[in-house]
Amino acid sequence: MSGRLAGRVVLISGGASGMGASHARACLAEGARVVVGDIADEAGAKLAAELGDHAAYVHLDVTSAGDWAAAVARTVERFGKLDVLVNNAGVLDGGALGAYTEQRWQRVLSINLTGPFLGLSAARDALVAARPASVINISSAAGLQGVAGMHAYTASKFGLRGLTKSAALELAPHGVRVNSVHPGGILTPMIGAPVGATADRDADTRTRLGVPEEVSGLVVYLASAESSYCTGSEFVVDGGMTAG
After folding, report:
1. Mind giving me the DSSP string for 219-242?
2. For residue 142, what are the CA distances in angstroms to 1, 130, 134?
3. What is the pLDDT of residue 205?
4. Alpha carbons 127 and 117: distance in angstroms, whole number
5. Torsion over CA of 29, 91, 139 and 137, rounded to 10 degrees?
6. Which of 43, 170, 171, 187 could staple 193 via S-S, CB 3.0–4.6 A?
7. pTM for this predicted structure
């Protein structure tokens, strides 16, 4: 542990598994205190217990403003403040135009886009109070380029990229930075990969999938003072997917 996040308190939505769990471990390893928010209560509580006294779990349905308010309050109550919000929760769902239903469209947008908006709204005052603070919105390579058949997912991730910029402009005078992270294909349960799936990091990045830890390093950077002049920006970790 090098202490890059020593003394900082991080709230991560969708933190019970996949990239969220990796982000939680990485932040804790760098000295942060971490609150894991998720709807998977058993997995979230198990992870928090594994991480120890500097971690806690809170039930968090990101489509619920009430859950967000409670999660922020619980974070401040447990650890005294909130320095970093990681809007990580998301779902992947697609289908062809004409067959993809409005209900499925609304579900994806409510989790992937409205969820981060509600998180920013609930955490705003706590983040300002803890300034300098950081918000990290986990978008996608699909927030930079279209993906056929993934209309709701693509729209939600482009929308999160835009929300990142408007929030960054609004919150900059208050000492809060807001950036978006755009992963490519990452080996997580979201894409059907088994827990703990690995990749050969020496292989061609254009022909392999990434692993969560390759994204978590970027999250740690954006959560730390090392990125103090970065706001309203896209940080891409996609193995070259969007390069051309």
Report:
1. HHHHHSGGGTT--S-EEEESTTTT
2. 33, 32, 23
3. 79
4. 14
5. -50
6. 187
7. 0.94
